[in-house]
Amino acid sequence: MAEVREENQGRDHENRGAAVKVGGTLAVIAVIVAALNLRPSISSVGPVLDDILAAMDASPSLGGVITALPGLAFFLVGLVAVAVAKRLGLTGALAVGAVMLFMGLAIRPWVSNIWLFLLLTLLSVAGIALANVLLPAWVKVHGGRNVVTLMVIYSSFLAVGGGLGPATALLFQSGEQGNAVSASGGGMAMWQLALAAWAVVALVQLVLWAPMWAKLGHDYPAAPPSGSVNVPVWKSPTAVALVVFFGVQSMNAYFLMGWLPKMLIDSGVSASLATWASMFVQGLGIVGGLVMPPLIARTKRLSFVGSGLALIFAAGYLLMILLCHRGADALPGWFAMLAALLLGVGGFCFPMAIALIPARTASHVLTARLSGFVQPVGYLLSALGPFLVGVAAGALHNWGPILWVLFGTTLLLSVMGFIVGRDTMIDFELQERSGEKLRRYTLD
C-alpha cells in the first residue's frame, strides 16, 4: 500500500503543472514569441553565407555544413526531446531551449573561427529543435478550446520569423554588395549585425518562458489508460506517411532557406532581388499558417489539398530549372518572383504537416510521441538535403541536375500528401494493433 501511495504521489507531483491554467493572453504571447524564434537564426544565414565563409577563410563545402546543421540538430535533439520533457515538463524543456538559443545567437556573430561558429550554430538550433517537437504538444495541453487558434498563430509567426530572417541582411547592408563595414556599428561587419540582431528576439523569449516554467512547474501530461501507449508510433501507416511528408517538405524548405539566394544570383538575378525572392518564399508561409490549421480542423478529407500543394511546389521547381538553363537576362524580370510564388505556395505543406500532428491525435501524450517521431526522422532528411546540395553544387557548378532531383522529391511529396490527408486518427490505428476494440476516432 505504501508503494501505491508513493506512486500516486509521484503522479500527482508530475501533473501538478498541468492543473495550473495558462491565461489566454499569456498563451498567445508565449506561442508568438516562441514561434518567431524558430527560423530567423537559420534563414538569416543564407543571404550572408558567402560573407561568413570569406571572413573566416572557410571552404564552400563548409557552407553545406552550416545549412545542414539545423536538420541534423533537429534529428538528434528530437530523439530525446520527449524524454527531456518528461524530466523537466513541457514548459521547462522549452525554457531550456530558449537559453540554448539565446547563448548561441548572442556569441556566434563575434567568433572568428569557423568551427566555433559551427558549434554555436549547433547550440542555437538544438534549442530550436526542442521547441519544434514540444511546442505543438504544449499547445495541445494548455490551449484548451483555443488549440486551433494557437496553431494558426504558431504556424503564422513561424513563417514571419522565417521571412524576416533574410531581411536583416538588407537592413544592415551598406557599401559594395553589402560587404562594407558599418562605420556606425563600430567597425562591425554587416553580416555580424545581421546575425546578432536575432539574439535580441531570443532574449525576449527567454525572459518570458523562464518565469512561466516557475509558474507551471512539471506539466508533462499523464498517459491515458490505453494499450496504444505501448504500441510504437511507426506501426501507424498514417504516422509513417506523415514522417515522409514532413521530411521531404523540410528538406526542400531548408534547401530554399539556405541556397535559394545564391542559386538565383548564380543564374544572373541581382543580389537584392534574390534576397527579396527568398523573403517572399518564407513570407508566404504566413498565409499558409493562417489558412492550413483552420482548414484541417474543419475539413475531414484533405488528400487532394496535400497532393495539390506538392504539385504547385513541383511547378515552382520547373520554373527554376528554366531560369537556371536560360539565365535571368533571357527572361522577364518578374520570372524569378513567379517561381518564388509557386515555391512559397507549395511550402504550405509545412504548416499542413505541423497542424496534422495535433489534428491526427486524440490524446496529449500521443501528440508529443507523434511529434517526437515525425520531426526527428523528418529533419534528418532536411539535414542530408542541404548538405548534399552543397557538395553537389561544388562538384557540378551547375544547379540544373540538383533542381531536377528536387523536382522529383515533390512528386513523392504529392503521394504522401494524398495519404496523410485521409480521414483517420493515429490513435485508432495504434489501438487496432494493440488488440483493443475501441471506437474509431475521426475528425468529426
TrEMBL record:
Domain of life: Bacteria
Transmembrane segments: 18-38, 58-81, 88-108, 114-135, 147-169, 189-210, 239-261, 273-292, 304-328, 334-357, 377-396, 402-421
A GO cellular-component term linked to this record: plasma membrane
InterPro entries cross-referenced by the UniProt entry: MFS, MFS_Cyanate_Porter, MFS_dom, MFS_trans_sf
Residue stretches making up the Major facilitator superfamily (MFS) profile domain: 27-425
Keywords in alphabetical order: Membrane, Transmembrane, Transmembrane helix
Any matching Pfam family: MFS_1
Membrane topology annotation: Multi-pass membrane protein
Record-level Gene Ontology MF annotations: transmembrane transporter activity
The keyword Membrane belongs to this UniProt entry's keyword annotation: yes
Localization: Cell membrane
PANTHER family: 2-NITROIMIDAZOLE TRANSPORTER, PTHR23523
Protein name, UniProt field: Cyanate permease
Lineage: Bacteria, Bacillati, Actinomycetota, Actinomycetes, Mycobacteriales
